[in-house]
Amino acid sequence: MNATTKAVWLGHCRTGGRFYLRADEMLPGINVLGTGADGLAAVLAAACKDSGLTTLVLDFNGRMAEGLSGRFEARNLGYFLYDSQRMEEKASLHAELAASAYTMSMNLNFEQEGFLNSAIQYIGLEQGLASPSSLTDRLIATGEFRGHTADELRGKLGALRSLNLAGETGVVKRMISNNCVASFAEAESHQAAEVAAMLLIAKVLAIGASGGKLPDIMVVNESNRVFANLPLTRHTNRLLTTLLTAEVSRVFVAEVGYGLDHHILDTSPVRILSSTLANEVSGGNSSVGGLYHAQHQGRIGSTLSALLLTPNMFVLQDSARGYEEVFVPRIIGQMEATPSLQPEPQKSDTGLVKRILETFSSYDHATRGSVVGFLSGEDPPEEVQKAIDRLQADGYLVVVGKDVKTDSPLQTFRLTEKGYSLLRSLR
Q1: Residue 73 sits in which domain range?
Q2: For residue 8, what are the β-bridge partners?
């Protein structure tokens, strides 16, 4: 049985018997809306795993990780954030997606997105890190980005210092090849969680564009936080457009029945409504928006107008097939808990840090690539890159623009006073 014909068991029909969905019926996506949506999304994710479909869950509030405990590998922000920010797969496209990720989650304007895209393109040429600190350094160093708009952008990036983390590389590929929950519940702020989620989506799409295998299913709970139906029209939606055209079934979950971007509502023929929301629809009091335009009223009313759903029921509506079914979700039991979700502690790299600082202090216009190549004889290149990123995030290294050609695509670093102090303490 291939992926398009695999049956996903969601629960029991109102009239009796099991209720199934085929994987191809979930393309291009499903919207799960209303009270209890998170619980049903956990059931759907577990059912997809039981059917042999690889599933990636983006969990904002921790409910999905709790509901899928023991069934899914769960990873916290510190495990995958560093890898999400690294520009490796199709760096130019990834840079565009990362700039769009920052724009959508921070509600930036068109000019600020252009600044970010330009800065991340430079970073991508050396497969660097598009972290807030790296972007801030780049915006300051080149002298190309000036004025109130650039100052405002640097201020917004400064509020995301908690996202300047070091970690392992290649972990996102491992996550999307398994059944995994990416949890953002430990983020220091709502905005930090939203930026991190969008950067993870951008990384996954970049991996897919470079020929990597995408997960069969991607589930996003509290999706109205990152895909909100804003009153102002967005200028680009590049990340959203790429996501909606990717070969992955998308499940957007929202406990509230409103606020989801109309592009998502309009491109997802399958919708699952909670009993509360469905009862509101049948009474003509819906607040969901585009889903309940006049042309849909006859189809919805034909089944639900005379039926009052109890709190344990949901209704699935497939507008492409003109199909509708009321069902009760199945119960998924918790399995034995998985091992600790925290990343492994990093080994001591004092010697490597000393060599990096000495190299940058000894050579003018030293770039990330040149130092990585110079030191890779003693240490693996990925370890050197991580150490440089950590030193930059902690303020020991800074990107400089003085005496550097404005059209140079390379990042030149120098030590800060804090960096020189650290180097003296290590000698």
Answers
A1: 1-345
A2: 21
**Which one, of 136, 102, 96, 103, lies nearest residue 117 by Cα?**
96
Q: What's 345's DSSP letter? A: P
Tell me the torsion sign for CA atoms 71, 77, 82, 86: positive
- In 3-state terms, what secondary structure has residue 75? strand
- Could you tell me if 30 and 248 are in contact, meaning their C-beta atoms sit under 8 angstroms apart? no
Q: Read off the pLDDT of residues 337-390 as tens digits, 9 standing for 90 and up.
A: 444 444 444 445 788 888 888 888 888 778 887 888 888 777 888 788 888 888
Q: What is the pTM of this model?
A: 0.79
For position 366, which CATH number holds?
Answer: 1.10.10.10
With a CB cutoff of 8 Å and minimum separation 6, the contacts of 91 are 124, 125, 127
Spatial CA neighbour of 300 closest among 276, 327, 273 = 273
Are 366 and 227 members of one domain?
A: no
Tokens of 229: 């139906």
Identify whether residues 137 and 268 lie together within a single domain.
yes
Note the residue count of the chain. 427
Give the integer Cα–Cα distance in Å for 71 and 86. Answer: 29
Copy the structure tokens of residue 70: 């023991």
Return the residue matching tokens 């200028």.
235
DSSP state of 129: B
